[in-house]
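Running this now, will post back.
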Amino acid sequence: MSPPCTVLSSNLRFFSAVLLCLMQQLTFGQIQLLDTAAFYRHLKDNDLLLEQIVFANNIRNVSSADQTRKDSLTLDIATAYFRLQLKDSCSANLKRITSWHQFSERKKQLYVSSLILCKEMSLAEKSTSLLSSPKSIAEARLSFSVLKRETVYTDSSIKDISEGMIDLRNRYVNTPRHSPFLAGTFSAILPGAGKWYIGYKQQALTAFIANILFAAQAAESYAKAGVSSPQFIITASLFGIFYSGNIWGSVLAAKKKKRDHLNEIEYEILDHYHTEFSKLSR
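Update: finished.
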């Protein structure tokens, strides 16, 4: 073989060896990547939440060049913390996300649901506008109004929300508006009238009968024994306690009825998003 042919043959063997080595390294890297993804999927599918958090943190630390990838992992970590009922840790991770506008629609909905469940209203309101579903946007905005105790206005978006959310909206609009001042005033004029005004008719009758009985006993004691008698002092004191308690009870009942009504609606809204969160986080 001539010297030029020998050199050519040596060069070909050298470049072939380098190419083979590079192909092996590339294949090995792909296998590692597939193994990492498969293992992470295994952790999520089997609800190994603590292990998932640790593993996702490790992956996030080596994904410094891809912010969207890091934020996606951060969202996974936040959802895992929420499922562990660690809302503070969930909120802390949700606040670290910066490129949520690059998420898929499913990830955006999960992000918004997580923010609402953690009551991070300002972040949730900012991110809602990028949702592509008119229904999701309308329901989220309604939820913000209810959770922040703001006025709900009727607009064209009402047609986009579900029947269940429409019912919640109507109940919120028709929240009891009984005045605590009027409830107390009515009870002062006629015991039990304040409870009747609020809608607690059975309690109103009970309060009326109890106050009438104590008033009658006090009047009878006064007629028989006089104003300085121990019997009158005791019965009059009991009547005063029940009379004052009836007034104050009516004031508190008016406040409590409104608060309980709003808390029930809030609970149902959060339950709605908890159901959505459970579907999206799997």
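The chain has a mean pLDDT of 82. More later if anyone needs it.
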